[in-house]
Amino acid sequence: MVINSLCKELASPDQIRVYAERYIKARIVQGAHENHRRAEIEARIAAIIEDNDRLLDLLKAGKGDQDAADARMKAQGKERDELKQELARREATSSCTRQPSRHLPTS
Fold it and tell me: pLDDT band for position 104 (50/70/90)?
């Protein structure tokens, strides 16, 4: 049933071309979103590391509230680990784009 309706939708080279163009555009948009999210995650991980280093330096110097710094570092460590897991799940997007429509005969 699905195959039959797909065959009807893609019955002509023009319909296939439109489908391919829409597919490629959607993949580009999705890739841009993935790249943006990866950059956000990487920036947040870097900020967490920087803040934890700053807190550790304060504690080494005998400044600041140790309990508060410890709680904050633990919370940020948990967030960092979750972000690293999310980053690992996200597939790196390729800069190569497939162009299936270029192989179609021109009418």
Answer: low
- Angstrom distances, CA of residue 48 to CA of 13, 56, 60, 68, 87: 52, 12, 18, 16, 15
d(CA 22, CA 15): 11
CB 45 within 8 A of CB 80: yes
Burial (Cβ within 10 Å: 0-12, 13-18, ≥19) of residue 50: exposed
Work out the number of other CB atoms within 10 angstroms of the CB of residue 92: 10
Residues in the chain: 107
Domain boundaries, the chain: 2-90
Q: What is the largest CA-CA distance in the chain?
A: 77
Query: Which of 37-46, 61-70, 98-107 is predicted with the least confidence, judged by mean pLDDT?
Result: 98-107
Instruction: Calculate mean pLDDT across residues 53-72.
Output: 93
Secondary structure class of 54 (helix, strand, coil): helix
